Amino acid sequence: MVKDKEIVVPGETIATGISFLPGKGAYRDNDKIVAQRLGIVSIDGKVIKLIPLAGKYIPKLKDRVVGMVIDVLMTGWRLEFNSPYSAVMTLKDATSEFIPRGVDLTQYYALGDYVVCQIVNVTSQKLIDVSMKGPGLRKLRGGRIIEVNSQKVPRIIGKDGSMVSMVKQATNCDVIVGQNGWIWIDGEPENEVVAVKAIKKIEEDAHLSGLTDKMAVWLEKETGVKVNPAAAPPAEEQATEEHPHHFGGSQ
Description:
Strand content: 25-35%
Helix content: 10-25%
Structural class: alpha+beta
CATH topology of the largest domain: Ribosomal Protein S8, Chain: A, domain 1
Shape: flat
Radius of gyration: 21 Å
Number of domains: 3
Distance between the termini: 48 Å
CATH architecture of the largest domain: 2-Layer Sandwich
Number of helices: 5
Strand order of the largest sheet: 8-9-10-12-11
CATH class of the largest domain: Alpha Beta
């Protein structure tokens, strides 16, 4: 019997006997339940299902991620961030403000809010804590979120931030790339559309050499703006650029 949250490969036996039922991503073969794909085992009562791993982000300490609030708890918030696991943001990690006991926590972060935060703890049981304390970590207002394969994120950011910097220059959009493959884009609607197309193109062509130059030409053709790949901010600023004219403090 494979344990809950264990990673299995296609064809691997997850359980034997007839006391369990196969769910999504698993099938029965005589008295065995077998994995149909690479995934993480999720045991829900009598049902065994697999959470697919391909394309999903595996959390790493100190990564900056874009997350969405999916639950308001007594002592903080639960976030989803394109991973098989969710994360918890406690009151002390959420804000430097004093939060009185019993206050309505949705006035800080409500369901569906997006934030850029940092992973501060990953346990062996894959319990994850995130923090909003740090430069550029904040609630994201307006804009749109797109999803890319988290394996392609380094290519989208580019060497020393060159690739994402070109997209920002050409489209005049704010762009925050989460290591988890969720990207926030905020600008004029028509510019956001070009930024989305550019990022999807980088994701698609990530394996090609000379991609920075190709993207510079593509962006100039799309926007009429001449971009300079060399004029990139340091990599650590990619997810930390503050734009105070767009954002106030916590609501």
